[in-house]
Specification:
It is a single chain. This protein has about 160 residues and is of the alpha/beta class. It has a single domain, classed as Rossmann fold (3-Layer(aba) Sandwich), CATH 3.40.50. Helix content is about 30%, strand content about 35%. The chain has five helices and twelve strands. Strand 2, helix 2 and strand 3 form a beta-alpha-beta unit. The radius of gyration is 15 Å and the shape is globular. About 35% of the residues are buried.
């Protein structure tokens, strides 16, 4: 499983701590720290240029490190999503790396809270139909999910985390 950086992805990583036999690859230092003490998780952190604003790695080193892995599932936080523009992000280097993540993954799982719907950020990541699953919160109006379902994306609306 490949986990991209972001606060929502970090929450997902925390939910994986009790899993056994899981291999996690990430370029997120917070995700790495969250899972580092889990003896049943085989953990790999991609190298690269470390960005201090979100404590993640990027650049050619991260891309080359990823090249040795096969990825069954990708968990990707979404900066913005629309049916027309797809997934977008606010950083050029991050969006380039996320495009590589998507190419490597057999199954792409996007996570976006209701505030990300209808948002078009500066840099393109991929068309929305590249998602296999889209997970969002109960604050997302059902009508905003319809176009993604029509594309074949399995949309999951979850309640508040307890």
């Amino acid at each position: 499983m490949l986990i991209a950086p972001g606060t929502t992805a970090l929450e997902v990583a925390g939910c994986l701590k009790s899993r056994k036999g899981l291999t996690v690859i990430t370029n997120s230092l917070p995700v790495t720290m969250e899972l580092a003490s889990c003896p049943n998780i085989n953990l790999f952190c991609l190298g690269g240029h470390v960005r201090g604003d979100d404590f993640s790695t990027a650049g050619i080193t991260a891309v080359e490190n990823l090249g040795i892995f096969n990825v069954a599932k990708l968990i990707i936080g979404i900066g913005g999503i629309t049916p027309e523009r797809g997934l977008t992000d606010y950083r050029m280097d991050e969006s380039a790396l996320l495009r590589t993540f998507i190419e490597k993954a057999d199954c792409v799982i996007g996570i976006a809270d209701h505030s990300k719907f209808g948002v078009v950020s500066v840099y393109n990541i991929c068309p929305a139909d590249k998602l296999d699953h889209l997970i969002t919160d109960s604050g997302t109006p059902v009508e905003l999910c319809k176009p993604y379902r029509e594309m074949g994306v399995q949309v999951h609306i979850v309640g508040p985390y307890v």
